[in-house]
């Protein structure tokens, strides 16, 4: 695997493992104290670099050691947040503890001052990006919930996009992660909550995060991940009880459908 010489000097001969949890298509090499992320150049990748730099001192996020762009790829070496992500079995075996940590993570995001945030993730911007993906035929309909397309669902990504544009909910602005799922939330060895994979983060509707977290919890407890292993003791109501809000069914459905186009 090709790695620029300027990065090799930091990681030469160090053992690593490959992280296969994410679906971004990036190559992620996990070292003891660092992470090398290799991915195609995109606005999302550039946004992540900007936002992570801005978030340092505001949230526990991985600092960039060195970033190199060559031939359409970005090689970004970051400090590693040492700890366990919230999809780890030890958390799934203790739903009460896991929900407390999810609520703490959500609160940390919500408390970020958004007055000078360098990234806007408003619904209009997200829908514009979704439209570009649909036009370029980048939506993988095979990697969506079975109920989204086909019988009883939408006939095509174009029809889903049309519905999303016609049914935009009122936004409740906050700093959002944008891909707020259990593997992207880490309980650090220092006891603090950390965040990774921030390419979709910025100022957006808080229900975007709530919807994706709700789905992630359901999927992990039901055995959709973790080799099919199911974990008892979780009810969806537990999330909303911990967050202290009433579930808005329509907004949850809306943001889950929007995510199907990404």
Write a concise synopsis of the structure shown.
With 262 residues, this protein is α+β, with helices and mostly antiparallel strands. The protein has 9 helices and 10 strands. A 5-stranded antiparallel sheet has the order 1-2-3-5-4, covered by helices on one side. It has a 3-stranded antiparallel sheet with strand order 6-8-9, with helices on one face. A two-stranded antiparallel sheet has the order 7-10.
How many independent structural domains? 2
- What is the CATH class of the largest domain? Alpha Beta
Number of helices: 9
- Structural class label: alpha+beta
Computed CA radius of gyration, to the nearest angstrom: 19 Å
Q: Estimate the mean pLDDT confidence.
A: 95
Number of strands: 10
- In spatial order, strands of the major sheet run 1-2-3-5-4
CATH architecture of the largest domain: Alpha-Beta Complex
Proportion of strand residues: 15-25%
Query: How far apart lie the N and C ends?
Result: 27 Å
Main sheet record: 5 strands, antiparallel
Low-pLDDT ranges: none
Helicity range: 25-40%
CATH-wise, what's the superfamily of the largest domain?
Aminoglycoside phosphotransferase (APH), C-terminal lobe
CATH fold-type name of the largest domain? Aminoglycoside 3'-phosphotransferase, Chain: A, domain 2
Shape: globular
- Pattern of helices and strands: HEEEHEEEHHHHEEEEHHH
């Amino acid at each position: 695997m090709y790695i620029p010489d300027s990065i090799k000097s930091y990681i030469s001969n160090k053992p690593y493992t490959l992280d296969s949890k994410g679906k971004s298509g990036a190559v992620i090499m996990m070292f003891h104290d660092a992470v090398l992320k290799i991915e195609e150049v995109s606005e999302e990748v550039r946004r992540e670099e900007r936002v992570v730099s801005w978030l340092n001192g505001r949230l526990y996020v991985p600092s960039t050691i060195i970033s190199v762009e060559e031939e359409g790829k970005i090689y970004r070496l970051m400090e590693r947040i040492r700890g366990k992500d919230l999809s780890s079995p030890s958390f799934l075996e203790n739903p009460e503890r896991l929900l407390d940590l999810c609520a703490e993570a959500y609160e940390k995001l919500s408390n970020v001052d958004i007055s000078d945030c360098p990234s806007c993730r408003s619904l209009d911007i997200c829908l514009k990006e979704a439209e570009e993906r649909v036009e370029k035929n980048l939506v993988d309909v095979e990697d969506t919930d079975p109920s989204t397309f086909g019988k009883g669902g939408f006939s095509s990504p174009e029809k889903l996009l049309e519905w999303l544009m016609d049914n935009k909910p009122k936004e409740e602005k906050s700093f959002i992660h944008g891909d707020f799922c259990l593997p992207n939330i880490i309980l650090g060895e220092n006891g603090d909550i950390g965040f990774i994979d921030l390419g979709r983060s910025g100022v957006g509707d808080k229900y975007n995060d709530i919807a994706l977290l709700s789905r992630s919890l359901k999927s992990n407890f039901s055995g959709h991940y973790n080799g099919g292993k199911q974990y008892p003791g979780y009810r969806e109501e537990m999330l909303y009880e911990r967050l202290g809000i009433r579930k808005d069914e329509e907004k949850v459905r809306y943001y889950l459908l929007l995510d199907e186009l990404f």
